[in-house]
Amino acid sequence: MRLLLVEDEKRMAQALCEILRLEKYEVDHFSSGIDGLAAIESNVYDIVILDVMLPGMNGFEVAKKARSKGITTPILMLTAKAELDDKVNGLDSGADDYLTKPFMTKELLARLRALGRRRLGTTDGILSFGDIALDTGTLTLSCTANGQNVRLSEKEYRILEYLIANSSQVLTREQLAVKIWGFESEAEYNNVEVYMSFTRKKLAFVEAKTEIKAVRGIGYELRYGDV
After folding, report:
1. What span, in angstroms and rounded, lies between the C-alpha atoms of 179 and 133?
2. Does the pLDDT at position 227 exceed 60?
3. Staple 35 to which of 30, 136, 142, 209, CB 3.0 to 4.6 Å?
4. Who's near 87: CB < 8 A, 6+ residues apart?
5. Percentages helix, strand, coil for the chain, rounded to the nearest 5?
6. Angle 221-226-174 (CA atoms, 0-180°, nearest 5)?
7. d(C-alpha 206, C-alpha 141), whole Å
């Protein structure tokens, strides 16, 4: 999963990034509300960890503006404020959960896992679309029609995970590049083409009818059968 951390306290941000990366999350970090909102609007993140006290635009404003633009990414709001009114304000602004500083790492990770399951729409760690099933724990792709399966590389897995989670829309090459490689990566769009080819071969290997279709001039989408 790719997470966005919007936190202006340098030491806190560094510590959180280290913890989350040890837990195998991909993390991008921004320190201002304005930059954080721009990143959220890219719609490539699975979860946003958003501090309230930010320069330029506070977390309440960031969440509210993101929701007004149709962004549905789960938001976990962090704040040193424990008053009930602040919690209510955060939730009313569009946050999905609220964590007061200081907090225990175990609680943060548990809340992220819960938001991740909600985001992916799974309780058993299996993502499904058409005749394919993706095991989020073992990175295994299976065809439900014939039982054949194959292990995916990390990037192949993340491509399919992203496509399944957004199966109702076409994803652009820009979205895929940022989602898989991150904002600061120098990966070019041909990287997307290469790994898309690898992923298609894995779908063909398990003889799935689900396909990754290219939409001319836009990007890619998942299709099953003649749909």
Report:
1. 21
2. no
3. 30
4. 98
5. 40, 25, 35
6. 10
7. 8
- What is the Cα–Cα distance from 100 to 87, expressed in whole angstroms? 9
Q: What is the dihedral of CA 18, 33, 100, 71, to 10 degrees?
A: -90
| Residue 63 CA neighbour count, 13 Å, CB half | 26
Cα dihedral 141, 188, 72, 55 sign? positive
Q: How far apart are the first and last CA of the chain?
A: 28
**What are the pLDDT digits (tens) for 149-189?**
999 998 999 899 999 988 888 999 888 888 888 766 666 66
The H or E element spanning position 141 is strand 140-143
Phi and psi torsions of 111, nearest 5°: -65, -35
Lookup: tokens for 67:
């929701």
